[in-house]
Design a protein that fits this description.
This protein is α/β, with parallel strands linked by helices. The chain contains 15 helices and 22 strands. The protein folds into two domains: 115 residues, Rossmann fold (3-Layer(aba) Sandwich), CATH 3.40.50; 248 residues, 3-Layer(aba) Sandwich (Rossmann fold), CATH 3.40.50.
Length: 496
């Protein structure tokens, strides 16, 4: 979509602030990325001056269309504090001016204050322009607690895990363990992080890829004792709702018993801070994936009762993230590339969204300031209609909705709701002193976690006492529904 990348592009840097100047210095020093033509900026105090002998032109809207352009020109938007609305405006100005390649440096949720690197610049994407603007949380201060620590990210090859890993690299952690059971995804994030290090990001961190299996209890006990991690961010999970409705036992085996194995191994090996990444689908769950995260939350909360002094085990819950693998944004882009139609489940369907970088920054922040045995909910803002999201992505791609690309409504899939709840009826939301991080207070009632896990075990693990229950989906759903009645009933579900 962004066209051929020329060998020696002429570069216009949009924004003459700290990030733009840092990018310009790096391009000049390395002299291999192209040549800088000018800064474009709207600040009248900067326009008309030169920075490091590069002219500052503006206002952006006026000068962009007047530039003497060549096909080798590219624009790099270097304004980490830009709002979504301003980024949308800039993007369409630059597209109209004829720039076929537009890159963007990370937003404030990713860039450590005063420290932007060209290697972090990437092709602009619909998720950069959608939803509300991320909150500026002072990343340097909020990740200070991680400096010099040994940190493990489970599911490090996934969308959330890989972004946590990128931000942890900037945090100056001593060792970064990339844990996952898929060698290809771990190989990719390992390579990406080493490329970032080559570009000057987190050069002192030792990156250690670890291929392993959460479901193997003995292995988890052994590996956690050997790695001596101080902090664990648990982002690993099977999470594609329709896929897990067809593979319910795999969801429980991995997400529930895998989490239990990890938590127990972390407690035994002295992990001081453990953060479970959870989801709004855990609230009064309808689907098996949601039920698996409901149980994972309770496993993590119960772990605090067995924690030693100085150990803090907590939950951070949030809604959908824009652009994660298997989510609607990549699907929409693929459907648009094929000429449509773009499929939406229902014209009334809505979801809470935030960007992956913002979610991960807030998870890192909550992990440092949170207390053991607590659950936190990230402020997701207002829900977004899926139909509106589809229309925005179609426009970003240069088309008109329903004229060039048709939107087709296909109905809700198994385990899906029209809208998600972020807070259960037996929970109360309390603000904390940290922006967009709220504490969830459970109001009443008890949940017999040990009994629920015992009821689920025969379906996941072969036992002489109940051989007929092993891998039996009906047995599993019946056990789930007896403890979590909100889970959807499926009379026609096959046994195996």
């Amino acid at each position: 979509m962004m066209g051929h990348i020329p060998e020696n592009p002429r570069i216009y840097i949009i924004g003459a602030g700290f990030a733009g100047r840092a990018i310009a210095r790096e391009i000049k020093e390395k002299a291999v990325f192209g040549s800088i033509v000018a800064f474009l900026d709207d600040d009248p105090l900067k326009v008309g001056h030169r920075i490091d002998d590069v002219p500052v032109l503006g206002p952006i809207r006026d000068v962009a269309r007047l530039l003497a352009r060549t096909p080798a020109d590219e624009a790099i938007i270097a304004i980490p504090s830009a709002s979504r609305e301003y980024l949308r405006e800039l993007y369409y100005i630059l597209k109209e001016a004829g720039f076929s390649r537009i890159r963007i440096v990370p937003d404030v949720a990713q860039v450590i204050e005063g420290d932007a690197h060209l290697v972090q610049a990437r092709e602009i994407d619909p998720q950069d322009l959608l939803g509300r603007s991320p909150v500026a949380i002072g990343l340097r201060k909020s990740i200070q607690w991680l400096s010099g620590r040994r940190v493990m990210v489970t599911g490090a090859g996934g969308s959330i895990g890989s972004e946590l890993a990128r931000q942890l690299l900037s945090a100056g952690v001593e060792r970064l363990y990339l844990f996952g059971h898929g060698e290809n995804s771990i190989y990719q994030i390992d390579r990406e992080l080493r490329a970032l290090q080559a570009g000057g990001v987190g050069v002192s961190t030792a990156i250690v890829p670890v291929i392993g299996e959460l479901k193997d209890r003995v292995y988890m006990e052994n590996i956690m004792l050997r790695l001596k991690a101080d902090v664990v961010f648990h982002a690993a999970a099977y999470k594609h709702v329709p896929m897990m409705e067809a593979n319910t036992i795999a969801a429980i085996e991995n997400n529930v018993f895998g989490t239990q194995n990890l938590v127990d191994a972390c407690l035994a090996s002295g992990v001081r801070r453990f953060v479970l990444v959870s989801t709004d689908k855990a609230v009064e769950p309808l689907c098996v994936y949601g039920a698996s995260k409901f149980l994972s939350e309770r496993i993590t909360m119960q772990a605090q009762s067995g924690a030693a002094s100085g150990q803090h085990y907590m939950v951070v819950r949030f809604g959908n993230v824009l652009g994660s693998r298997g989510s609607i944004l990549p699907l929409f882009k693929q459907q648009i590339a094929q000429g449509g139609p773009v499929t939406v489940t229902d014209p009334r369907a809505s979801r809470y969204f935030m960007t992956i970088p913002e979610a991960c920054s807030l998870v890192l922040k909550a992990g440092g300031v949170g207390s053991g045995g607590s659950s936190y909910l990230l402020d997701m803002g207002e829900p977004i209609m899926i139909r509106d999201l589809a229309e925005q992505v179609i426009r970003f791609s240069g088309f008109v909705p329903d004229r060039d690309i048709r939107i087709e409504y296909i109905g809700l899939r198994p385990g899906e709701r029209l809208e998600e709840k972020l807070v259960a009826d037996d929970e109360r939301l309390e603000p904390t002193s940290y922006p967009r991080i709220n504490r969830l207070q459970r109001l009443n009632g008890t949940f017999n976690l040990d009994a629920a896990l015992m009821a689920l075990r025969p379906a996941c693990f072969a036992t002489p006492e109940a051989p007929e229950a092993y891998r039996n989906r009906r047995v599993l759903r019946s056990a789930l529904r007896s403890y979590i009645p909100s889970v959807e009933e499926k009379p026609d579900e096959p046994e195996y």
